[in-house]
Design brief:
Helices cover 37% and strands 27% of the residues of chain A. By secondary structure, chain A is α/β, with parallel strands linked by helices. In chain A, helix 5 crosses helix 6. The two termini of chain A are 36 Å apart. Chain B has one domain. Chain B is elongated. The chains are: A alpha/beta, B mainly alpha.
Amino acid sequence: MNLSSSTLTTTLPVTGQAAIEFRDVRLGFAQGEILRGVTFSAQERETVILLGETGTGKTLLLKLASGLLRPDSGGIQVLGKDISGMAESDLLEIRRQIGFVFQEGALFDSLTVGENVAYRLHEDGVDDEEIESRVKEVLRFVELAHTIDSLPSELSGGMRRRVSIARALIGQPPIVLYDSPTAGLDPITSQTIISLILRLRDVYGVTALLATHRLQDGFALANFHFDPQAKKVRRDSSPESARVAPTRFLVLRAGRIYFEGTPDELMKSPDPYLRRFLI
Amino acid sequence: MADTPIQAAPQEARAPEVPSVVEVLQDLAKTSVLKVQNYSKLSYHSITNLATGPRYIQDTLDQMDDIGVGSLPIVLLSGFFIGAVMVLQTGTQFERFGQASLTGDIVSLALVRELGPSITGLLVAGRCSSGIASELGSMLVTEQVDAMRAMGTDPSRKLVTPRVLASLITLPLLTTISVFVGLIGGMVASVLSLRINATTFWERAIKILEFSDIMQGFSKSVVFAFILATVGCYQGLNVRGGTQGVGRATTQAVVVSSVLIIVSDTFLTKIALYLADKFF
């Protein structure tokens, strides 16, 4: 794995402000109100794990954070800008600073892996030589350099998720949103995906919202860290690591934040509903 | 609150209310107006996107290849036989009055003014409007459209405008080819069936045409191109209900675009005849 070139080694600067902030956000559809006043924030370089059952609105929160959906009421700030009432043309610019890893990858099925990963660079008019080197580099980062000419349909589910991570990563975004990145994958592949997210966080310093219903993903992100010198993922739950790359849990229930706290606080919670996630 | 899969139940359990007829009609009217509004917005942006960048030239060329070159075989084949059958149908009637030589005139006028644009429009609508709807619909249900938006690309510019522009460029060309091949088909039929001299047929077919006839056919093909592309895009980008919805959108695209082509043809003909009478 090569982490020495420009694409991945730039650690993002910290400005001390919340990268993402939701204030009393409500959103409903024909079947009823799904989000009923959600308030939370994600600080720069923080990883916020959105935990909840299916249908509690985890994906909606990610789509709201990227401006793909608009709230019925409430405010959303991303990188200091209020996006809740922003015009679509202005949102396109904001979205260029956000990487989105969709649950099923959402790769363009008529484009090759290389073309999928290079999509944003082509849009930005980057020259072909630079595109080629950056695509190869991010594909090496997700250990899929050999699939550059393959079509998404030729890849396994786990490989498609990794390509999706590579695609989100190519624009060097300060924020990455992961929608159930390990859903439906076997434990080994899930581990590979989580270690990729770890590396992205610890090498690149991105702020992340990660929606999942698997508690073990959240604990893995809280308790393991990537050591760039040794180029290895290590178990490290020391306060220093938690300070550099903090991880926080938000549990969604019935459209509201039911619990907000550190992995330790979640583990020690006597709440019977939360205990059900720990089984 | 129960831990149901979708936790969007109302605060209190209430018996479902049966809507009145007026409420149903109101909802229907609102939905219809909303659809027309959304279609109008999509159509408007498909054109205004051309004024500002980014412009997707390669995508437009790809779509021209798909819509234009891809539709050529069916347009050639159908054009030839429509011309031939026109001669067979009209020629026998003219023969009764000893005016078989008029066949070239009438076939030429019918093809240029009416049959060329409308038959080509309907054929391309059947082939491409459905193709556009299913392609965009599949992209929508697999979140590819959302992925595009998430990467800062406007789907209207990337997906809609190239398809509309490609249709606007290729359908008039396909119509021209269809009319030409139709005249050849008519000529072959008149020589073989009515024993009309090929040169006579061709001369009369060309001489009868006026500038207004050509403009009528051309303007119709432009409008039909706009209809088939925008309806296909609208249906594709408004798919509801997964893969089943994609199937429904595909069918709807063909039905709606075909009906709109036929209805608009009536009004365009009336307008064209009025303008021809007024200015030419």
